[in-house]
Every structure is written in C-alpha cells, then in structure tokens.
Amino acid sequence: MVEAVQDAGVVVTGAGGGIGAALARRFAAEGARVVVNDLDADKAKAVADEIGATAVPGDASGIVAEARAALGGTIDVYCANAGVAFEDGTPGGPLDERSWAVSWDVNVMAHVRAAHDLLPDWLQNGGGRFVSTVSAAGLLTMIGAPSYSVTKHGALAFAEWLSLTYRHRGVKVHAICPQGVRTDMLAATGSAGDLVLQPTAIEPDEVADALFAGMAEDRFLILPHPEVAEYYQARAAHPDKWLGGMNRLQRAWEDSR
C-alpha cells in the first residue's frame, strides 16, 4: 500500500469505465476518499456507488472546485485520466479539424486547467500528486491517429514540465504510458489498433497496479508495458532507424485495409 493514499482526497476524471474506473476502484480499496468524474453522469454514479465514492459528473476541465468541496476542501491526488482518441489518419482521407480541436482540449488543456486550479493550494500546503494518463503514443507515436499521437506528446510534455518545475515544492507527478488496454477507447483506434495494440493489450487493473508500484517508488514514468522503455531508447538513439521501422508498420497497415 502507498501510505500517502490512506484517507487522501482523490479525483479521477474519465472514471466511468476503463482505466479511470480501475484507478478509482484501486484508490478506494487503498483507503482513499474518491471523487469519480465522467461526462456520462450515469456511469460516474454507478462507479461511485460501487466503491463508496462521490460522483461529480461533467467536463473534466472545470470540476476541481466542485470536487474539492466534495472532499471537504482538499484534493491530495488528481488523476487527469479523461481522454479521447480518433482514427483520423486514414490514408488519403480528409483533414478532420474537429478531431484535432477536441483532442487538444481534452488530452492537453484539461490537464493544464486542472493544474492551474490545483497548484495554488498544493504550493501553499506543501504538495500534491498529479497523475497524467498519457499513452505509449506520447513517448513513441501511433499509426493512423495523428491527433491522438500529437496531443499525447503534449500531455507528456506538460507532465514533465510540472515535475521539473514543482518537485522541489512537494508536487509529485506521474505519467502513465501504456500501450493497448482493453477499454472502449481501444476500439476507437480502429484497424490500426487491431494491428498494433490488440496483440499485447492488458486489463485496466494492470494499469492501476503499475501506477501504485510507481507511486511507491516515486517514479515519474509509469510503463505498464515495460518493453516501451526499450522502444523509447531506440527512438532516441537511432531516430531514422526507428522511423523506418514505424514506416514499415504503416505500410503493413495500408496493405491490410
């Protein structure tokens, strides 16, 4: 058990299902007081009722004040988990500006807005914990999903900035970067996800396990698929070789369609 979680006030966005629900269940099981957020009010309530938590439905960008009040005035851990994914990189397809705008708002700016609302209290009180659900796409990339890949890079960059800027003031930051996870979002990746992510997909509970192991060690980067570390190193050390390998994967995807 992570001792700091006992009786902590925890918010999990996008927690009506998938990774978010798994995180909410795990925090509750470890003794935390949990706020379950989701755009779908019924899903948020169902998970909250199941684990003895409080549902605060709505847009993840603007729920900090309400969630803080529901937790008695203090948020100790904020899990910026809500996210969207589109298969908007179909070969020869049109540019879908809506998917870019929505992806930027949900996958990046919701994190920025939450941190803006959280930091004053955290800096005054000596710290807090910000958990960003990114993706291996934020470390690497994902074929067939340009808006997802680019905004997840942005989410990772923001999490890095938070950590390097505020860690000496007690703010702990974790970036969760799994590959495929068996959730509804995996289905949204379409045929590219079927090719790349499905073969090694894991369960949401395994992501929660990886987070808690990382929190116990105060690790920034949480890799539920450990092999991602090797891919990330190869990408940094030999970018052209890595891009060539990803291009072969792209061509295999195109040939399969």
Tags for this entry?
single chain, 257 residues, alpha/beta, Rossmann fold, 7-stranded parallel β-sheet, globular, oxidoreductase, Sc_DH/Rdtase_CS, oxidoreductase activity
**Tally of structural domains:** 1
Q: How many distinct helices?
A: 11
CATH topology: Rossmann fold
Strands, count: 7
CATH class: Alpha Beta
- Helix-strand topology string: EHEHEHEHEHHEHHHEHH
CATH architecture: 3-Layer(aba) Sandwich
Keywords: Oxidoreductase
Protein name: SDR family oxidoreductase
GO molecular function, one term: oxidoreductase activity
Family: Belongs to the short-chain dehydrogenases/reductases (SDR) family.
Structural write-up:
- This protein is of the alpha/beta class and 257 residues long.
- It has one domain: 3-Layer(aba) Sandwich (Rossmann fold).
- 54% of the residues lie in helices and 11% in strands.
- The protein contains 11 helices and 7 strands.
- A 7-stranded parallel beta sheet has the order 3-2-1-4-5-6-7, with helices on both faces.
- Helix 1 (18-29) packs across helix 9 (204-216), helix 4 (97-125) runs parallel beside helix 6 and helix 10 (227-237) packs across helix 11 (239-256).
- The radius of gyration is 18 Å and the shape is globular.
- One of its GO terms (molecular function) is oxidoreductase activity.
- Belongs to the short-chain dehydrogenases/reductases (SDR) family.
- It comes from Streptomyces bauhiniae.
- This is SDR family oxidoreductase.
- Keywords: Oxidoreductase.
